[in-house]
Amino acid sequence: MLSLSHPHPASTGPRHRKPLSTAPQRRRRFSYNIAALILPGGGGGRGSPPNGGKLILPGGGGGGVGGGGSSGMLPRTPPPSSPGQLYQPYHPPPSPLPDTFRNLDLTERLAVLRDRMGRWYEYAPLISSLSREGFTPASIEEATGMSGVEQNRLVVASQVRDSLISDEFPADLIHYFDSYGGPDLLYELRFLNARQRVEAAKHAIDRRLEAKGVRELARSMKDFPQRRGDDGWDAFDRHSAGDCLAYARFRLSREAIANEDRMPELERSLDVVETETARARVELEMERAIRKAAGEEVEEPEADVNARPAVPVVRLIYGEISEASIVLLLPVVRETDGVEAVDLAPRRKKTDADLGIVEVDKGWARWAVLPGWAPVMAVADEAVVIQLADGRVLPWRSAENERVLVVADRKRKEVVDEGIYVLEKGGKLVVERGNKLLEEGIITAAAEVVTVVRPPKDEEDIIVGDEWD
Predict the structure, then answer these.
(1) Same structural domain for residues 319 and 446?
(2) For the segment 245-273, what is each residue's pLDDT rounded down to a tens digit?
(3) Which of 78, 106, 347, 369 has its CA 20 to 30 A from that of 90?
(4) 155 and 124 housed in the same domain
(5) Are the beta carbons of 39 and 51 closer than 8 angstroms?
(6) Are the beta carbons of 187 and 213 closer than 8 angstroms?
């Protein structure tokens, strides 16, 4: 007798079948990444896709699970700004590497650096690309034999070279730095701004300077603006690379102790000077040095009435106030407010040094926050700040067209010959020299100037390299 085999073992008990469930069965959810959303023109109302409520996926239909028409999921990419435009996802910026090195693998890039294949400014970007991939200067040196100092010099020099490629710098001169000694020359220009780098590079090419000479030139151009008010400074042109270098040597000659040591520096200054006013000032100094060496009595030159007086003129630095251990809150008066506002501005009444609480004798609307510089701290109780819209109204020639704050002491009103004072003329607050006021018969002013504060200056184009070991 034949028997049929069952897939389930026999059971002695009654068998019960599982009743069918009336609930809908749970289906497996599929999710799809939408790379593009195409919205053709025309179609439905506001808030609905123009093509009848269906999302058209690349490589899929419009309805069902495969097409995603009833999934209810929002696309991961934002819709285009207007119908008919294809949404463009983010693309990384183009590679900074030259075309010849862009498709090289890691081993080939290391070989290029190891064998110095190509021009230095062409393979210098390879160093930056390796750094972005996790290489350290030490690991690059181990693989290529290029020291960390050389790596830094090449990277910075290539950035300086790229900054010189502009309308201000002749294209035929850039090839002067293509030789292997070019990085040493360009590296010294890293602390100059874009305009100064152009002038320094032209001067270096014209004079065939070596790295040491370029370093002296760059330092003199960087230091020149900081020497405002020094003797002879106004005779030299700040926009001339030769004048900046000539003034640095001119200043060294004046710092020499022995008179015979002054002449070599003055001769070197005369060799690079470019403007006629600067040349005349150096020649005058040479004549005085020769007369002194001959034993003649030489009168000191009269002070330039347009030169900056001995009043501190400081420029704020971004973040300086936040890093200062002591800050001052001083009342501000506009130049159009008149001398009455200077007297009405509040004065410091009481100070709690431990908690930093300051009380004033009256309310005021405008205040200035300044670092606790020593000259300002000394007059904090009677200090007032005058806001000038144009710094060129200051009574010295080196003033620039920029807003400035003049910190003045209201306690010192008596005019003396060497001082700088705030007073009212023509309904406006002005700053004048004491000797000029005495010549006009004015013996009392509103306040004496303590210091002049200039706004921070952007120097984003300065290239600074890391000093790698």
Answers:
(1) yes
(2) 999 999 999 887 777 788 899 999 999 99
(3) 106
(4) yes
(5) yes
(6) no
Q: Domain boundary residue among 154, 187, 220?
A: 187
28-to-25, 60, 65, 68 alpha-carbon distances in Å: 10, 18, 10, 13
CA distances from 42 to 45, 48, 51 (A): 9, 11, 7
- Reported confidence tier of residue 82, pLDDT bands at 50, 70, 90: low
* Domain end among 137, 168, 187: 187
What pTM does this model have? 0.55
Is residue 110 pLDDT above 70, yes or no? Answer: yes
- Same domain for 319 and 442: yes
Place of tokens 């058209």: 56
Residue 278 domain-assigned (yes or no): no
Residue 229 lies in a domain: no
Residue 109 vs residues 125, 126, 140, 443: alpha-carbon distances, Å: 10, 7, 11, 76
Report residue 287: phi and psi, to 5°: -65, -40
Q: Is pLDDT of 242 > 90?
A: yes
Return the H-helix or E-strand segment holding 404.
strand 404-409
Residue 306 domain-assigned (yes or no): no
29 vs 408 pLDDT, higher one? 408
- What's residue 443's pLDDT? 92
Query: pLDDT for 133-191, tens place per residue?
Result: 889 999 999 999 999 999 999 999 999 999 999 888 998 999 999 887 899 999 999 98
Do 329 and 415 lie in one domain? The reply is yes
Burial of 441 (0-12, 13-18, 19+ CB in 10 A): exposed
The amino acid sitting at 204 is A
How many domains does the structure of the chain reveal?
Answer: 3
Supply the range of the domain harboring residue 43: 36-86
